[in-house]
């Protein structure tokens, strides 16, 4: 999938939201993950491991591939039937028992060690989404939604907020629960004509809250629909463009803004109250599932317009640091376990890539004066907050924002999050089957999808091909037969 990430410069700082789209991938590459181990953390951090949390990473090792710390009589690596920590003990497939009925905990050191180590693997470019393009613009409120949230930037109608946007790409691995995403990827929707013609989706479920009042909240998903019209390449045309002009999308975005043809996206929200969330068929915290529009309709509330190109790409885009943990007041993360893992990983990546004081870089600095407890570190260049103490003190007391917290929904939340990590169920294939029928209503789209899959899958080993046939057949028997016949014809 290829997300574009939107940062909103609110008075409190920067709020980030990753919006998913996609580019074509290779089933051969993603069907044997142990052979491409160096690429796997990219998929984990960018939410494309089956749409599930990195907690399930060790499932990729169940075929017996692993590593053992070298000893005096051992080679540097050798085959192992169990995944182990870097100290040596085996790792359980399950969450720690203490966390099964509650939220993600720091005591799950397998996850924390994995993410912390991953964040330091490569320098100096971004660990994920290394190649991309970006621009500046503004968000304008077009509809009143003040009854849903107290977010300052969303009221009143007509209010404008400056934004920075970056577009990028990433990879995906195969787990059956991600088949709906795989089908988006390998359809023509997976090769957008340009950034300007690409829709965006938050993917994650967030909470809009009213902390200053009663702490009530609603669950939301954000959609950005391109006002230029959705437009895609076929696989063949995308391959040709990649060879002739690999930076086509970047150039198209830059040149359009430069001549005043400003791209824009209408912003919509899907809203569920806690009670409605409990009654929805789909698990709202499961990243592999969408909320059907017929059940949860889209509500327009704003527009994003990009109207200014960057002047220095390194200073303004390469050093631009996004994180879903940095949210403006009125927005909170949900219990989505993949989102919870990213709350740690993204800022930790920025500290590694840009330094401990990456928030002081001009493009990341908040517009409002801040008063944190962080001090010192490399490149502390803003006066280090002078003589102010880095702890709550009696001689310079601090004021804290008063908020109300609603906790009545938490027991249901804990149970639903735990359910995500169960076995694959028939309903995991239902939305993929529905997408197959949607493609059937668009001339040539089913044929293009089958051809795109077969042209990649035909080079894989026989056992890999037949696992893919089984996966598609579980979504739709006719689809499975078409993929099998086309793939076997090309593999001869």
What does this structure look like?
The chain is of the alpha+beta class and 492 residues long. Among the domains are: 3-22 and 128-175 and 193-364, Catalase core domain (Catalase HpII,  Chain A, domain 1, Beta Barrel); 426-491, no CATH class. Helices cover 29% and strands 14% of the residues. It has helices spanning 27-31, 40-45, 109-118, 179-186, 235-244, 248-258, 274-279, 313-318, 337-354, 410-419, 430-440, 445-457, 462-475, 477-491, and strands at residues 4-10, 13-19, 132-141, 160-168, 200-201, 206-209, 217-226, 264-272, 299-308, 331-333. Strands 1, 2, 3, 4, 5, 6, 7, 8, 9 and 10 form a ten-stranded antiparallel sheet that branches. Strand 1 (4-10) and strand 2 (13-19) form a beta hairpin. It is globular. The two termini are 30 Å apart. Residues 1-77 and 169-174 have low confidence and may be disordered.
What's the arrangement of secondary structure elements?
Elements: E1 4-10, E2 13-19, H1 27-31, H2 40-45, H3 109-118, E3 132-141, E4 160-168, H4 179-186, E5 200-201, E6 206-209, E7 217-226, H5 235-244, H6 248-258, E8 264-272, H7 274-279, E9 299-308, H8 313-318, E10 331-333, H9 337-354, H10 410-419, H11 430-440, H12 445-457, H13 462-475, H14 477-491
Antiparallel strand pairs: 1-2, 1-4, 3-4, 3-9, 5-7, 6-7, 6-10, 7-8, 8-9
Helix pairs in contact: 3-9, 4-11, 12-14, 13-14
């Amino acid at each position: 999938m290829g997300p574009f990430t939107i940062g909103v410069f609110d008075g409190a700082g920067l709020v980030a939201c990753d919006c998913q789209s996609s580019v074509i991938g290779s089933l051969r590459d993603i069907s044997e993950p142990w052979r491409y181990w160096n690429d796997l953390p990219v998929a984990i951090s960018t939410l494309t491991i089956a749409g599930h949390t990195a907690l399930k990473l060790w499932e990729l090792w169940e075929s017996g591939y692993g590593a053992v710390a070298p000893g005096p009589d051992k080679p540097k690596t050798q085959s192992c039937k169990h995944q182990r920590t870097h100290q040596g003990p085996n790792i359980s497939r399950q969450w720690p028992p203490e966390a099964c009925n509650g939220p993600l905990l720091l005591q799950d050191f397998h996850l924390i060690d994995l993410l912390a180590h991953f964040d330091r693997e490569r320098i100096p470019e971004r660990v994920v989404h290394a190649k991309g393009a970006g621009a500046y613009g503004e968000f304008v409120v077009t509809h009143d939604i003040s009854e849903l949230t107290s977010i300052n930037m969303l009221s009143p109608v007509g209010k404008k907020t400056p934004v920075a946007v970056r577009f990028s790409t990433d990879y995906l691995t195969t787990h059956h629960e991600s088949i709906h995403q795989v089908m988006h990827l390998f359809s023509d929707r997976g090769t957008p004509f340009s950034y300007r013609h690409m829709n965006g989706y938050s993917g994650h479920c967030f909470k809009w809250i009213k902390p200053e009042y009663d702490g009530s909240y609603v669950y939301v998903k954000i959609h950005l629909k391109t006002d230029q019209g959705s437009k895609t390449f076929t696989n063949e045309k995308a391959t040709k463009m990649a060879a002739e002009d690999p930076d086509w999308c970047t150039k198209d975005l830059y040149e359009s803004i430069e001549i005043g043809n400003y791209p824009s996206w209408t912003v919509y929200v899907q809203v569920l109250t806690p009670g409605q969330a409990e009654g929805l068929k789909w698990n709202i915290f499961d990243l592999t599932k969408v909320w059907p529009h017929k059940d949860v309709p889209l509500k327009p509330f704003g527009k994003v317009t990009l109207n200014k190109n960057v002047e220095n790409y390194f200073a303004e885009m390469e050093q631009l640091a996004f994180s879903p943990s940095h949210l403006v007041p009125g927005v909170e993360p949900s219990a989505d376990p993949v989102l919870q893992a990213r709350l740690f990983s993204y800022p930790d990546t920025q500290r590694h890539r840009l330094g401990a004081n990456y928030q002081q870089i001009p493009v990341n600095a908040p517009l409002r004066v801040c008063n944190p407890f962080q001090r010192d570190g490399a490149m502390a260049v803003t006066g280090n907050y002078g003589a102010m103490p880095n702890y709550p003190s009696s001689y310079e007391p601090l004021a804290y924002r008063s908020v109300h917290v609603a906790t009545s929904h938490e027991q249901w939340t804990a149970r639903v999050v735990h359910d995500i990590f169960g076995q694959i169920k028939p309903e995991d294939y239902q939305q993929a089957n529905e997408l197959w029928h949607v493609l059937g209503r668009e001339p040539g789209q089913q044929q293009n999808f089958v051809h795109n899959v077969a042209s990649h899958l035909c080079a894989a080993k026989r056992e890999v091909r037949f696992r893919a046939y089984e996966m598609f057949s579980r979504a739709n028997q006719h689809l499975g037969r078409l993929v099998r016949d086309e793939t076997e014809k090309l593999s001869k």
